[in-house]
Specification:
The protein is mainly alpha-helical and 130 residues long. The protein contains 6 helices and 2 strands; from the N terminus they run αααββααα. Helix content is 48%, strand content 3%.
């Protein structure tokens, strides 16, 4: 089992390669879209690199449950409802959704996803230790 530091280092390297950013820009608090410039197509590359680097499988929708954001039970007038936020929190326990919950506009969802969120996701998959 890798340590949390090892998980971060591998994720940092994967993001540097996938996004063409500088290593020092990949900090835990950096957002993948806003700070590192990731686009939707980049997430496919990132998932591929994580699967290969950690020898894990990440089924479509597990990292980013986009189906919730398209479900009329959870989205009204372009905003995620309380029920939708509860569903996202259940399916994404590794993500801090507090800021998103203040103004849950669907289009802003991926903009708040951080490197730390990604690390917690992978740590959960690989059973990372301190």
């Amino acid at each position: 089992m890798p340590t949390k530091d090892e998980v971060f280092e591998k994720i940092q390297a994967a993001l540097v390669d996938a996004l063409g950013v500088d290593e020092e820009d990949v900090k835990p608090e950096a957002t993948l879209v806003g700070d590192l410039g990731a686009e939707s197509i980049d997430f496919l590359d990132i998932v591929f690199r994580l699967e290969k680097g950690f020898n894990i499988k990440i089924p479509q929708g597990e990292l980013m449950p986009e189906d919730v954001l398209k479900d009329t039970r959870y989205v009204v007038d372009g905003k995620v409802t309380e029920a939708g936020l509860a569903e996202l929190r259940q399916r994404m326990p590794y993500a801090n959704l507090d800021e998103f919950a203040q103004n849950p506009v669907v289009q802003d969802f991926t903009k708040l996803f951080t490197v730390a969120d990604l690390c917690r996701f992978v740590e959960g998959k690989v059973g990372a230790t301190e």
